Amino acid sequence: MEEEMLRLELESMKKKLDSWGRELNKLEALTKRETKKFEEDNKQQVHDKLELKKETLFLVVKLDRFSRETTCCQKQIAACWSCHLSNNQQIRGNFASSCA
Predict the structure, then answer these.
(1) CA distance 20 to 59
(2) What is d(CA 64, CA 60) in angstroms, rounded to the nearest whole number?
(3) Least trusted range by pLDDT, from 36-40, 44-48, 67-71, 89-93
(4) CA angle at residue 67 from 63 to 69, to 5 degrees?
(5) Dihedral sign, CA of 78, 80, 84, 86?
(6) What pLDDT does 95 receive?
(7) Distance between CA atoms of 6 and 12, rounded to whole angstroms?
(8) 90, 95, 97, 100 alpha-carbon torsion, rounded to 10°
(9) How far apart are CA 75 and CA 65, in angstroms?
(10) What are phi and psi of 42, to 5 degrees?
């Protein structure tokens, strides 16, 4: 009788252990899936950040180039305008001296 009770108790414990083992396996599989998803998401975020940095750098270079070209054009326009004003003063001076 006592031996039968011990056998039943042992069987019950084995069933609990098996149940816990299955539950542990499920949790491990879930953890692996979540870890994989986290790593994939992290990888995508890193990729997105790198792409954003590349685009930002491209825009900075483009803006710098535009700024330099604009400055160069402004200098050329200023020089041309200065030359134009100088020529107008010479023309006026020549006109005034010829009229006098």
Answers:
(1) 58
(2) 6
(3) 89-93
(4) 115
(5) positive
(6) 45
(7) 10
(8) -160
(9) 15
(10) -65, -45
Q: Cα(83)–Cα(57) distance, rounded to whole angstroms?
A: 39
Residue keyed to tokens 């940095």: 53
- Rounded to whole angstroms, the Cα distance separating 67 from 32 reads 52
Q: How far apart are CA 18 and CA 20, in angstroms?
A: 5
How far out from the chain centre does Cα 56 lie? 8
Q: Encoding tokens for residue 34?
A: 């979540």
Q: In the numeric block, which tokens belong to residue 73?
A: 């054009």
How would you label 35-53 residue by residue, b for 16+ Cβ within 10 Å and e otherwise?
A: eeeeeeeeeeeeeeeeeee
Q: What is the pTM of this model?
A: 0.49
pLDDT beyond 60 at 100 = no
- CA 33-35-38 angle, to 5 degrees, is 110
Compute the residue count for the chain.
100
